[in-house]
Each structure stands twice: as structure tokens, then as C-alpha cells.
Predict the structure.
Amino acid sequence: MIVTAETYHVPVLLQESVDGLDIQPDGVYVDVTFGGGGHSKEILSRLSPKGHLYSFDQDADAEKNIVNDDRFTFVRSNFRYIRNWMQYYGVEQIDGLLADLGVSSHHFDDETRGFSFRFDAPLDMRMNKRAGQTAADVLNNYTEEKLADVFYLYGELKNARQLAKKIVTARQEKLLGTTSELLKAVGMDELETNHKVPLELRSLSKRESSKFKAQLFQALRIEVNHEMDALRDMLRGATDLLREGGRLSVITYHSLEDRIVKNVMKAGNAEGKVEQDFYGRITSPFRLVNKITVPSDEEQQRNPRSRSAKLRIAEKI
């Protein structure tokens, strides 16, 4: 598969998210989700020769989109280590950070990575193909209880226990290695071919079955890449690094990550634990700049991935 900046990822809420950073031409900025480089290029277009941008990505494919610019530094790493890397580069404070969370268009469209249920592919799902456990490792090695927790917590699937039991039963005959084998194990192939359908899935329409599979794959992807822990670490690092008046601009795609971002911007912590001063005022390191910005109808038609996107912007105080 030939990867270019254009095919790797179509940037979502491009102007709105970069506008939200309130770019200072001589400032230092971080794009923690480089991908195809769309957001990074827009930030660079607004920087003077004195400004600088650090962009993170752990996917080797993203490196093919690296920008040749003296004001640009590519960091081949998970964004959870932002504090360590900024210290490495001698950066004490930053003027803004942008994050376009979720999965890039490239990952969904690459038939070899296992991120999408549209293709029969190896159950990999690693953002960083160079290290870590795969989705197959999770499915074949986790206990039934632990699998149920993954499906419930990260996929918000109500029948998580039933799914876990089906997978454990299936893997006793043969270890799961592909996306089609996973779908067969939970009965989704039978649903689509109108064969005998498991009781808990019989009422699913075609649209509901797609949502179910999306939730199932989302749960595995989040577990494989430790996405929630990485997000919490990154936001803590961003909170420490942002100077007074610095901006945090974050695009989310599902309720789990959006809840964490909202809590950090409102209360200063991922749990949303509110602290108040003597006068009962909420003490938070941030001031909300917007409520929620969503893509226009035109963008949603042009880029279906943007339909679930929400942009939140906050300023360090």
C-alpha cells in the first residue's frame, strides 16, 4: 500500500483546531498526533522563523510524511512521554498543544493492520508495529473475566460477559488470528449471512451490527495501545508544560476519551474531581475557550470520519 500525506489521513476540523491554538508566530507548539501532517503543516504556516513545532507519532508509516523544515522536529514516540521529550530538547514551556485523537484514516484503510472489520486481516491493531502485544495476544491470552472487562469498559458493550465466554470457547479449538475469525467467534458472520444467530444478537439490524463491531474493535484497539492511560499521561504533561495563556486544542471521537479531556479542562484532572477555593470557586489550571465545536455538514459529507468528532479548547491560567 502506497502511503502519502494525502492518503494517510484527512485532517479533521483543521482550521478550527489550529485557530483554537491562537498561534503566536514566535511560539513553541506541539502536535502530538502527526499522522499525515495536515495539522502540523497548518501550524507551521503560521509560525515565524523563530517559532518551532514538535510533532509526535509512534507509527513508522507516519514518518514518510515528515516535513522538511528547520522549524520542525519529529519525535518518534508515544505522546504519553511528552514531558520526557520536551526535557530532552530543552523545552521548559510550550505555547500550545494540538491532539487529533482516535485512529487515522490510514489505519482504517490499511487492510494489513486489523483496525477495521471491513477486511479479513491479522489481528494486530498496534499503532506502533515495532513493539507491544497484538489484538490476537489479548484475545488468546486474557482470562474470560479480563476480556469481559475490556469489552465493557472500552467498548461499552452490555453483553461483554457473553462475548468473552464465546471467545474463550472458540480459542480452545483454535487460536484467533484474523478479524474474520474474531467475528465468527462472536457470531457476527452468521448474522450477516442470515444463518442461525445467537439469541443476544438476533434483534440487531445491519446498522446496529456495524455499531456493535465498531465497539468491539474499539475496545481491543484501546487495550492493545493503552490509549486511555496514554491520554491521561499526555494531558498531565501538557498541563505542566503549557505556559500561562497557552492553549490546549483537542479533537475527540468517542465518549471515553472525550470524558477525560472534558474533565481535565474543567477540573484539572482526568477523574473530574472538582476542588474549590475558600469562596466556592472551582480551581482549575484551565479556562474553557469554547463549549464544543463539531464539523460542518459539508465537512461531514466530505470526510465521514469527522462525523463523531468534537473539538474542545482550553487556555492555561
In short: The chain has 14 helices and seven strands. The longest helix spans residues 206-225.
